[in-house]
């Protein structure tokens, strides 16, 4: 029996996917799994019982990834589950920026008591006129699940689409329209495109990538869209670009004191993935991944450990080892079983950066003495008996 705890309200449709082997606990310290959306976990005390954290969404900046890795806690996210909801809002963001729809709606609201509002409209509407999206050059930085969907829709809308992603996956490449121009240098996006939308994770290497230097290379009157993370842009530099007339509009899904209410900024209250469908899809995916890991030790869509899938164990035992990605570890692991005369029937070892994950299926269940020996090996974070 496994126990899970919800740090945020999680879609009921997702939670209904848990089998009878999983129960909801009201004590976070008793949980083997935590489901979370936006709750901050950096200052949380992580129980020794905790094995997994599943983020019902893509971003994981609210979770202490390194701390979890060192404790052998696998952190999952749900890439692509909310992609359609975000894609639709990105398209809406382009329309809001290209045509002053918000300004027009606000004018109508202010003139609602004018009996001649229809006549006044014909005089005022030119203030809110804009440009169409067809034939405009759209630059997409990041061709993951969301970026690919945005690219394909934009092509159907008659836009000329440029995509930049040096690490584009095989799946993304297959799903991407062949009419999208895949560029090898992000500066080509900056220099060529009328509209630029960013869809990359927030990392040390991407933080503030839209800055004064990048903006200086862009076309005059460029429209910038940020539905990924606000810290991907140096928003002080963005405001300066708006003031200088370099940037026509900045559309962000992340309200903060820097951009809220500022001239030239269209700020949406973090609605990208806030649809019923997105929340349901993320919850279902998070639950599925957590159950597979807790029951079988399989890791799919982890952000701090490598993917590792050995299916359902048909042997007497399965042991999972979390450790540093250093030489000679496998030899030490196998020696522990060999010394006890236990045959290893199947094994998988994967690494991700400085950490690694090893699973072993064995013909005889591991006893406490073997586990103790494995835990004593230098560089081992955690040993888990899956079966």
Describe it for me?
This protein is of the alpha/beta class. It is 32% helix and 21% strand. The protein contains 13 helices and 16 strands. It has helices at residues 12-15, 65-70, 83-98, 101-110, 117-124, 145-156, 170-175, 186-192, 212-216, 235-243, 276-296, 329-339, 368-376; strands at 2-6, 22-24, 33-36, 52-55, 74-76, 137-141, 160-164, 181-183, 195-198, 222-226, 247-252, 265-267, 317-324, 344-352, 355-362, 380-385. Strands 8-7-6-9-10-11-12 form a 7-stranded parallel beta sheet, sandwiched between helices. Helix 2 links the parallel strand 4 and strand 5 (74-76). Helix 3 (83-98) crosses helix 6. The two termini are 13 Å apart. The relative contact order is 0.12.
Mean pLDDT: 95
Question: What's the end-to-end separation, in Å?
Answer: 13 Å
Helix run count: 13
Structural class: alpha/beta
Strand order of the largest sheet: 8-7-6-9-10-11-12
Please report the total strand number as a whole number: 16
Q: Could you describe the largest sheet, including whether it forms a barrel?
A: 7 strands, parallel
SSE pattern, N- to C-terminal: EHEEEHEHHHEHEHEHEHEHEEHEHEEHE
The helicity comes to 25-40%
Shape: elongated
Query: Strand-residue fraction?
Result: 15-25%
How is the topology of this model organized?
Blueprint: E1 2-6, H1 12-15, E2 22-24, E3 33-36, E4 52-55, H2 65-70, E5 74-76, H3 83-98, H4 101-110, H5 117-124, E6 137-141, H6 145-156, E7 160-164, H7 170-175, E8 181-183, H8 186-192, E9 195-198, H9 212-216, E10 222-226, H10 235-243, E11 247-252, E12 265-267, H11 276-296, E13 317-324, H12 329-339, E14 344-352, E15 355-362, H13 368-376, E16 380-385
Parallel strand pairs: 1-2, 1-3, 3-4, 4-5, 6-7, 6-9, 7-8, 9-10, 10-11, 11-12
Antiparallel strand pairs: 13-15, 13-16, 14-15
């Amino acid at each position: 029996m496994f126990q899970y705890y919800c740090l945020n309200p999680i879609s009921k449709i997702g939670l209904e996917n848990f089998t009878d082997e999983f129960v909801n606990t009201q004590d976070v310290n008793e949980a083997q799994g935590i489901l979370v959306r936006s709750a901050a976990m950096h200052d949380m005390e992580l129980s020794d019982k905790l094995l997994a954290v599943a983020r019902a969404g893509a971003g994981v900046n609210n979770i202490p990834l390194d701390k979890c890795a060192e404790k052998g806690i696998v952190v999952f996210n749900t890439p692509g589950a909310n992609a359609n909801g975000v894609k639709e809002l990105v398209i809406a963001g382009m329309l809001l920026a290209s045509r002053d729809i918000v300004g027009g709606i606000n004018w109508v609201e202010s003139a609602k008591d004018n009996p001649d509002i229809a006549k006044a409209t014909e005089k005022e509407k030119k203030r809110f006129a804009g440009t169409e999206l067809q034939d405009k050059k759209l630059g997409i930085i990041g061709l993951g699940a969301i970026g690919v969907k945005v690219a394909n829709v934009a092509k159907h809308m008659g836009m000329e689409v440029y995509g930049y992603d040096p690490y584009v996956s095989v799946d993304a490449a297959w799903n991407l329209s062949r009419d999208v121009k895949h560029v090898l240098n992000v500066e080509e996006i900056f220099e060529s495109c009328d509209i630029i939308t960013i869809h990359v994770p927030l990392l040390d290497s991407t933080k503030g990538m839209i800055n004064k230097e990048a903006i200086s290379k862009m076309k005059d009157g460029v429209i910038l869209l940020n539905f990924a993370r606000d810290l991907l842009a140096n928003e002080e530099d963005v405001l300066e670009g708006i003031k200088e007339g370099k940037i026509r509009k900045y559309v962000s899904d992340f309200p903060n004191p820097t951009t809220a209410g500022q001239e030239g900024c269209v700020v949406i209250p973090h609605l990208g993935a806030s649809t019923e469908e997105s929340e349901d899809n993320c919850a279902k995916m998070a639950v599925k991944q957590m159950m597979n890991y807790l029951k079988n030790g399989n890791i799919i869509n982890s952000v701090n450990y490598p993917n590792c899938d050995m299916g359902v164990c048909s042997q007497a035992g399965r042991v999972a080892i979390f450790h540093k990605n250093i030489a000679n570890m496998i030899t030490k692991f196998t020696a522990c079983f060999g010394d006890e005369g236990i045959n290893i029937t199947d094994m998988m070892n994967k690494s991700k950066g400085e950490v690694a994950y090893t699973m072993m299926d064995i013909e005889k269940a591991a006893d406490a003495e073997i586990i103790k020996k494995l835990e004593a090996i230098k560089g081992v974070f955690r040993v888990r008996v899956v079966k």
